[in-house]
Amino acid sequence: MGDLLGVAVLGAGHMGADHIRRLDEVVSGARVVAVADPAADRAQAAVGGLDEVTVHTDPLAALDAPGVDAVLIASPGPAHEEVLLGAFERGLPVLCEKPMVPDSAGALRVLEAEARLGRRLAQIGFMRRYDAEYRRLKALLDGGALGRPLMLHCTHRNVSSPADFTSEMLINSSVSHEIDAARWLLGQELTAVTVLRPAPSTGAPAGLLDPQFVLFETERGALVDVEVFVNCGFGYQVRCEAVCEAGSARIGDEHTMVVTTRGSAREEVAQDYLVRFADAYDREVQAWVDATRRGEVTGPSAWDGYAASVVAEAGVRALETGSRTAVELAPRPDLYAGVSR
User: Which of 1, 183, 188, 228 is 20 to 30 A off residue 56, Cα-Cα?
Assistant: First the structure.
C-alpha cells in the first residue's frame, strides 16, 4: 500500500458524491482512485476535476482498477451484497453505507462470508456512533452515573421524503439508524418490535403511512420508542433522550445560530442529514482510513449490519400486521464476539 490509501467509491449519487468530496477535501491519508455508478455522466460529474481517477459503470470493474486498496460503498442498498462479496474475494477493506444489505437473508450471507474469511474486512456506515453528542451520551451511560437505562425516547424527522419512498422505508431506511444507535447505546440486542400508525399527515404523499411510532423491546427489559416523521416540512431533527434509574440525558436539541432582528428571533434548523451529521461523517471516514492504513478494521461490524437488517425486517412485518413481532437472530459468529455492541 502506498503513502495514500487508494479508495474506490461505488455510487455517485447524493451520498457518494459527498464522500468523494470528503475524501478529496477533508480526510487525510487517502485519495479517490476509482468511481463507479450505473450513470457514467453522474460518476464523471462527481469526480469533477480530480486527477487520475478512473470512472466505471460496473462496480466490480472499479474494484479491479489500478491503485485500489479499499472500497467505500455508497450505492443503493440492493446493490451492496454483490460488491461486499466481491471485496471479500479480493481481500479489500470496505466501508459500506447502511443498510449493509436490506434483506436479512442477504445480510446473513454477507456475515457468513466474512466469518469464513476469519478476519473482519467490513465496517458498516452507522455514522451516529461518530457524532459528538451520541458519543457523550454513550460514555455517560457506560459510566453508570445515571444507573440502569430504562427507556430511550427517539425522534427522527425529515423535511420531505423522496418520490419513491414507501411506508416500509420509514423503518428499514430511516429508523435503521435508531436501531443501531439503540443497540450501541444500551449494549443490548433488540428482541421485539411494535409499530403504531397515527392518521397520516396531510403533508405526506398519498398512500404513505407517515408518521409512524415504533416501539422496540430489548433483551434486558429496556424500551425504545421512535417517532419517525419524514414529511414534517420544517427541518431535519434527530433527538434521543435516555431515561435511567437515577436521571436522564437528552441530545439533539439544536444548538445552532440564533438570529435576532426587528423584535423577533429565529433559530436555524438543519434541512438535511449531511448538514446535521457532517462532522460525524468526517470523523467516521477519517477513522476508517486511519484504521485501514494500520491494517485494522474498527467501528460497526457486519454483525451490526446483519442485526439491523433483521430488526428492520421484523419492523416491516409489524407495520403490515399491526402485531408485536419478535426478532430472531442467527447465532453470533465467534469473529464478532466482543465487537461493537
Answer: 1
